[in-house]
């Protein structure tokens, strides 16, 4: 476990303390959480810290992280819309999970938006809450490690003038890869560390090349920042004409002792700035509430200012009242005309979508390509009972030891997209997961 403390300064914030606590890998999670909860008060006391906000990061394996495409029309009631269709994206009943989301990109021409959806089972999140009881000051937020790292690298890359970029962070058990578009986490993947150090550089380059293939052809070389501990630094150089501009992160700019503390630094940054990727899995009722004294003072001063302005400007309001009434009448007339224009525009959009759908027919992969990709992606512990292939996509029915593991495997394919469960996972008499999965093609 890594702990980082940031404090406000004239330049925004600065690092004032950091610490690491080794945890037994084979110990139960509850025991490790208890040890961490005992360490935190000692860390705060030793460094004379009275934190106003504390954020906690949890491993990705306790969460479900998905990218979802939804119409822009549901943006106003987005959380409710996700709740209705949650079983399409998460293999758990909605009442058993906490979730949060972030809009990554909006395509107003197509009328669609891309979301990052992160969900965690309530019973899994409850395992981490004893940390808040130990420190007795409450927790302001909980998120997955991948989004915390995304905010750290987004801040560093924006400072260097980067727009679209990738990062690769090497941890104790795995390496995390992410792609940032305009600072938001548009793609993320977690890969187990190879057992052979000789394959380490090859795995890193392979994953970064996979991120680069998702970009538009003809783009500039992908700016990729690597955060690799000294003991895992690859022996061979990661250079070559792969469409990658590879750099190593400079921790001296932040004062961190090692790459291990990067996720903790990204978490602490949320106390000083609005993050590009804002995820908080902690329910609002459990979050630590900020002091309202400052708000009361601000509202009191605001009320006095409004009263003074009202006394001074009362006469001017009466003078311009008739002019405002005339403008409102004209605006109502223009609103009627705008409504007619919007209806015509909506009709044009529907026709454009039909034309695009007709143009896209026949451009998908062949049946043999799909079957070959499925045979490579689906593990030996799963088998397919039903297979439907059409121009709209593929639908699979089958059984597996763990159906939830199939979604990230298929989602990582370069030719598949929008991989979702078409029905709730059920159990067979043999204890297997029975699933029905739908996916579409990525037309290049």
Which key features would you list for this structure?
444 residues, alpha+beta, Nucleotidyltransferase, domain 5, Gyrase A, domain 2, 5-stranded mixed β-sheet, 5-stranded antiparallel β-sheet
Strand order of the largest sheet: 10-9-8-11-12
Report the CATH topology name of the largest domain. Answer: Nucleotidyltransferase, domain 5
Determine the mean pLDDT.
82
Query: Mind summarizing the main beta sheet?
Result: 5 strands, mixed
Strand content: 25-35%
Oligomerization category of the chains in this entry: single chain
The rounded Rg comes to 26 Å
Overall CATH class of the largest domain = Alpha Beta
Instruction: Please tally the β strands and state the result.
Output: 17
- Percent range for helical residues? 25-40%
Measure the end-to-end span.
Answer: 42 Å
Q: Tell me the count of domains.
A: 3
**What general form does the structure show?**
globular
Low-confidence stretches: none
Describe the structure.
With 444 residues, the protein is α+β, with helices and mostly antiparallel strands. The protein folds into three domains: 211 residues, ATPase, nucleotide binding domain (Nucleotidyltransferase, domain 5), CATH 3.30.420; 69 residues, no CATH class; 75 residues, Gyrase A, domain 2, CATH 3.30.1360. The chain is built from ten helices and 17 strands. A five-stranded mixed beta sheet has the order 10-9-8-11-12. Strands 13, 14, 15, 16 and 17 form a five-stranded antiparallel beta sheet that branches. A hairpin with a 2-residue loop joins β1 and β2. α5 crosses α7. The chain is globular and about 80 Å long. 25% of the residues are buried.
């Amino acid at each position: 476990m890594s702990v980082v403390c940031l404090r406000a300064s004239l330049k925004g914030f600065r690092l004032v303390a950091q610490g690491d606590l080794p945890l037994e890998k084979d110990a139960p999670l509850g025991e490790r959480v208890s040890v961490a909860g005992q360490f935190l008060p000692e860390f705060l006391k030793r460094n004379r810290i009275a934190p106003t906000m504390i954020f906690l990061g949890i491993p990705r394996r306790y969460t479900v992280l998905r990218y979802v495409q939804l119409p822009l029309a549901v943006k106003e009631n987005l959380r409710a819309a996700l709740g209705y269709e949650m079983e399409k994206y998460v293999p758990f009943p909605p009442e058993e999970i906490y979730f949060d989301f972030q809009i990554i990109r909006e395509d107003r021409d197509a009328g669609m938006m891309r979301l990052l959806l992160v969900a965690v089972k309530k019973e899994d999140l409850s395992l981490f809450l004893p940390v808040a009881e130990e420190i007795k000051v409450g927790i302001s937020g909980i998120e997955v490690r991948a989004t915390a790292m995304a905010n750290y690298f987004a801040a560093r890359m924006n400072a260097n003038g980067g727009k679209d970029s990738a990062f690769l962070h090497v941890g104790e058990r795995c390496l995390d890869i992410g792609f940032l578009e305009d600072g938001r986490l548009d793609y993320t993947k977690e890969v187990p560390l190879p057992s052979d150090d000789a394959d380490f550089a090859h795995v890193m380059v392979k994953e970064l090349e996979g991120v680069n293939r998702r970009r538009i052809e003809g783009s500039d070389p992908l700016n990729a920042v690597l955060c690799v501990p000294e003991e895992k630094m690859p022996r061979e150089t990661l250079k070559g004409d792969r469409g990658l501009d590879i750099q190593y992160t400079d921790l001296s700019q932040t004062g961190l002792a090692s790459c291990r503390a990067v996720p903790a630094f990204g978490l602490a940054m949320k106390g000083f700035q609005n993050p590009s990727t804002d995820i908080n899995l902690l329910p609002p009722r459990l979050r630590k509430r900020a002091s309202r004294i400052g708000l009361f003072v601000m509202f009191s001063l605001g009320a006095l200012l409004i009263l003074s302005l009202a006394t001074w400007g009362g006469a001017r309001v009466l003078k311009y009242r008739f002019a405002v009434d005339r403008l409102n009448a004209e605006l109502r007339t223009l609103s009627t005309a705008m409504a007619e224009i919007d209806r015509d525009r909506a009709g044009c959009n529907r026709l454009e979508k039909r034309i695009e759908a007709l143009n896209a027919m026949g451009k998908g992969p062949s049946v043999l390509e799909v079957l070959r990709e499925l045979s490579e992606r689906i593990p030996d512990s799963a088998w397919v009972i039903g297979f439907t292939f059409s121009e709209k996509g593929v639908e699979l029915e089958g059984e597996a030891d763990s159906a939830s593991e199939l979604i990230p495997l298929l989602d990582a394919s370069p030719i598949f997209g929008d991989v979702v469960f078409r029905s709730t996972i059920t159990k067979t008499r043999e204890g297997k997961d029975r699933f029905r999965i739908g996916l579409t093609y990525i037309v290049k």
